[in-house]
Amino acid sequence: MPAQILDGKETARQIKQELASRVALLPVVPGLGTVLVGSDPGSVSYVAGKHRDCAEVGIASIREDLPADATQADIRAAIERLNNDPHCTGYIVQLPLPAGIPVNDLLELIDPEKDADGLHPTNLGRLVLRVNEEVSSPLPCTPAGIIELLERHGVELAGKDICVLGRGVTVGRSIGLLLTRRAINATVTLCHTGTVDLAEKVRRADVVIAATGQPHMVKAEWVKPGAVVIDVGVSRVFDESRGKYVIAGDVDPEVANVAGWISPNPGGVGPMTRAMLLANVVAIAQRQAGLR
């Protein structure tokens, strides 16, 4: 039978309804800030989507839109404005930044308490240290969204063998920190370009999380029958039959005939990432109001 679908769009819709109810109980309106440099189409579209989400939930939008030739000092000033803005509950710096800009140096300037992406070194450090404790700091959005998507579909993770493909900070390196916490208790194998016998490692996994940005890399013969497959990576490939570029994930479509569950791409992890960004902002606002 074809795999069951992990519907990120519908799940994100439900989460946004829940967040709207929580926002309505807050004494002040929370605000999401964005720093956007230049006019990269993907970044512009993504930021616009985040602010549309804000409107749905009742979160105010605060924008810092800078030209493509913005200097390091310009971006630093925008970050400092958001750090000091009492109406900004949390914010993100949209990547990529222009070539030559020291990305990590700037990201470390973000106030950790306003880190809506959950990727500031301070917050990742807290996640490393709090294996057995509750984590109150913002969580990395995509990893948190993946776990939320699985749990809301009744997929059990405790004791499962999970194979993660890709070691990027946004997903690969950070999702293991969440999955191996005692509250979830999964076993994680992180694979990358130096991994030997990659297909065999994938084949042993109960859950496969593909975040490489390599179109259709994960083949059906790699996947254990009934496994859960999460397709995170996004690539633009030219579809000759349609005469245009289209979105392709890391997972070959034939995997759907082998897996037990699969997330579509698009429509799976992407909406969940945006929903968890809003969830981080609302959680920060609740903590500030003494409601958490």
Question: What does it look like?
Answer:
The chain is α/β, with parallel strands linked by helices and 292 residues long. The protein folds into 2 domains: 25-117, Leucine Dehydrogenase, chain A, domain 1 (Rossmann fold); 139-271, Rossmann fold, CATH 3.40.50. The protein is built from 9 helices and 11 strands. It has helices spanning 8-24, 41-57, 72-84, 103-107, 121-129, 141-152, 172-179, 198-203, 269-288, and strands at 4-5, 31-37, 60-66, 90-93, 161-165, 187-191, 207-210, 228-231, 235-239, 244-248, 261-262. The strands form 3 sheets. Strands 1-11-8-7-5-6 form a 6-stranded parallel β-sheet. It has a 3-stranded parallel β-sheet with strand order 3-2-4, with helices on both faces. It has a two-stranded antiparallel sheet with strand order 9-10. Helix 1 packs parallel to helix 9 (269-288), helix 2 (41-57) packs across helix 9 (269-288) and helix 6 (141-152) crosses helix 9. The longest helix has 20 residues, at 269-288. The radius of gyration is 19 Å and the shape is globular. The protein starts with a strand and ends with a helix.
Brief write-up:
The chain is α/β, with parallel strands linked by helices and 292 residues long.
